[in-house]
Amino acid sequence: MRIDTIELKEALPQVFRDDPAPESQIWLTDVEFRRPNLYMVAAESGKGKSSMCSYIYGNRNDYMGQILFNGEDIRNYDIMRWSEIRRSHLALLPQELRLFPELSAMDNIRLKNRLTDFKTEEEILMMLDMLGIKHKANQLAAYLSVGQQQRVAIVRSLCQPFDFIMLDEPVSHLDAGNNRIAADLIVEEAKRQQAGVITTSVGNHLALVDPITLRL
Q1: 94 neighbors 168 (Cβ within 8 angstroms)
Q2: Of 15, 93, 167, 179, which has the fewest CB atoms closer than 10 Å, so is most exposed?
Q3: Cis geometry, peptide bond prior to residue 36 (ω within 30 degrees of 0)
Q4: What angle do CA 139, 200, 77 make, to 5 degrees?
Q5: Shortest CA distance to 87 belongs to which of 3, 168, 187, 8?
Q6: CA pair distance 55, 165, nearest whole angstrom
Q7: pLDDT on residue 178
C-alpha cells in the first residue's frame, strides 16, 4: 500500500512549546503533503525544518500534535513497519548527508542500493556523470568537497523506491548549473514513481518548477 498523504496536525517540536506560537504554515496548524506534488519548505535557521524531516521519517518523536500517513498516526508504528516504510516508501537526504568518510563515493551509494537493488551500476554512474563527478566515484568521501558530497548523497537518495522523497537543504553548496541538474534528476525519478517531493531551504532553493511553497 502506498503513502498518498502525509499530514501534520497541530504539530510542534517540544522544544518550542514554551515559546509564543510561531508564524508558520506548518507548526501549530494542519498541513497536508500529497503525492505527486512538489513542495518547498522555506525557513530561517533554527525554525525546525530538519526536525520536521526527522519526525516524518520516524527518527525522532519529540513533538506535540500528530503526524499521519494516509490518516494513520505514525506514533503507532513498530520497528518492522518503519523498516518497510524507509525501504520502500520514504527516501531521505539529511542536511548532514551521513556519508561514511572512509568509503568511496560509489561504495556509499552501493550501501543503499544493495538494500533495494533499485538501480544498476550503469544508472548510478550515469547520474554521477550528469552531476559532473563520475571521475570521483572511487574517491574517498572524506576527500570530496561539500558540494561533491551533496551530489553523491543526492544520487544515493534516488537508489530506492519511494512515495515521497525528503531533501533537507540538498543544494546549499551547489552552483546554479548543478542545482538544475540535481532538480531534474530528482523530479524525473519522482515522476517515474508518481511520488511527491518535499525539500527544505534557508536560501539556495532546489531548482524545482512551480513548487507549492510553505513558510516554516
Answers
A1: yes
A2: 15
A3: yes
A4: 90
A5: 3
A6: 14
A7: 96
Strand partners, 28: none
Q: How far apart are CA 154 and CA 94, in angstroms?
A: 10
CATH architecture type of domain 5-215: 3-Layer(aba) Sandwich (3.40)
Cell numbers describing residue 5: 498523504
User: Does the global pTM surpass 0.70?
Assistant: yes
> Would you say residue 21 has pLDDT above 70?
no
* Domain segments of the chain as ranges: 5-215
The conformational region for residue 107 under phi > 0 = left, psi -120 to 50 = alpha, else beta, is alpha
Alpha-carbon torsion, ordered 109, 115, 119, 123, to 10 deg: 20
Contact 30, 7 (CB under 8 A): yes
Return the pLDDT at 208: 97
User: Which residues is 167 bridged to in the sheet?
Assistant: 93, 199
For 186-211, the pLDDT digits (tens) are 999 999 999 999 999 998 899 999 99
pLDDT at 114: 94
- Cα separation of 19 and 153, whole Å? 34
What is the average pLDDT across 131-146?
98
3-state secondary structure of 63: strand
Q: Return the H-helix or E-strand segment holding 156.
A: helix 146-157
Distance of CA 137 to the CA centre of its chain: 22
